[in-house]
Amino acid sequence: MAKKPRILPPLEWLAPRVRFTRALSLACFFGLIALLVVNNLGFADLHGARVEVILAIELIPLLLLLPGMLLGSARAHAWTCFVVNIYFIKGVLAAFDPARALFGWIEVLVSLGLFVSGLLFVRWRFQFDRRMAGEGR
After folding, report:
1. Is 97 helix (H, G, I), strand (E, B) or coil?
2. Are 37 and 56 in contact (CB under 8 A)?
3. Are 106 and 90 contacting, i.e. CB atoms less than 8 angstroms apart?
4. What's this model's pTM, rounded to 2 decimal places?
């Protein structure tokens, strides 16, 4: 049985969505970095651990993705969707601790926003690129 060709949305529909989801994913990405830095520098009880070490451990995965995110790479956004699950889980665990509940819920919301906006950016960006290449007409 032959595969039915998929109809791609028009460029006029895709272009604003690609721009919006990229801007939203960048805002959530930098918001997550800022949240981690502010929390560790100002509010976290590190029990004698060095702040620089904790920040490095938490920020290295995000900083590895930073160049691709800034360039608007769909693959970097896709990898960010995988990596951000670590921060989502960390936020859920923190939300159960009454002393860190506010931080935990904020981290959950920001990481969830990054996941959804990054995922939509990847989907719509690949559709946009396929449409620009002349496919789906």
Report:
1. coil
2. no
3. no
4. 0.90
How many CB atoms sit inside 10 A of residue 90's CB?
17
Per-residue pLDDT of the chain (137 residues; tens, 9 = 90+): 667 777 888 899 999 999 999 999 999 999 999 999 999 888 777 777 788 888 999 999 999 999 999 999 999 999 999 999 999 999 999 999 998 899 999 999 999 999 999 999 999 999 999 999 887 66
**Which token pair is 41?**
């520098």
Counts for the chain of helices (H) and strands (E), in that order: 4, 0
Residue with tokens 């960048």: 26
Taking the C-alpha atoms of residue 54 and residue 9, their distance in angstroms, rounded to an integer, is: 45
